[in-house]
Amino acid sequence: MAVVTISFLTLAFGKLWFVLNLRDPGTTILDNDVVRNRWVGAAVALCITLLLMAVYMPGLSHVLQTRPPGVTGWTLILCLSAVPMVVGQFIRAGQAGGSK
C-alpha cells in the first residue's frame, strides 16, 4: 500500500529535518554548529540513502512491503515532513527574540 509507505517516509524524513531545530537560540538555520558539523550531514545523507533503498531496492522493498509513492506522494512526504522543522524554527526565533 502506498499510503503506508507515504506515512513511513513522512515520519522518517520529519525526524531527519528535525535535526535543524537542534541549534542554539540566537543562531540562524544556515549558520550554526549543527549545519557546520560534517558528521550530521553525513548521517542525514546516509539515512536518506537507506530510506530510498527501502522503497526502491527490489528485495528490500518486498520484505518491507513498500511501494514507490510517485510524484504526488513525494510532494506530500516532503511538505508534511517539513512541518516539525518549520514549527521548530518559529519556536527558536521566539526564544532568540525573548532572550534579548
Characterization of the model:
This protein has 100 residues and is an all-alpha fold. It has one domain. 75% of the residues lie in helices and 0% in strands.
* Structural class by sheet pairing and helices: mainly alpha
Look at the structure and give the mean pLDDT.
90
Structural domain count: 1
**Number of separate helices:** 6
The termini sit apart by: 50 Å
Strand content: under 5%
- Low-pLDDT residue spans: none
User: What share of the residues lie within helices?
Assistant: over 70%
**SSE sequence, one letter per element:** HHHHHH
Got a strand count? 0
Radius of gyration, taken over Cα atoms and rounded to an integer in Å: 16 Å
The dominant shape is elongated
Query: Main β-sheet, in a few words?
Result: none
Features:
100 residues, mainly alpha, 75% helix
What's the short story on this structure?
The protein is an all-alpha fold and 100 residues long. The protein contains six helices and no strands.
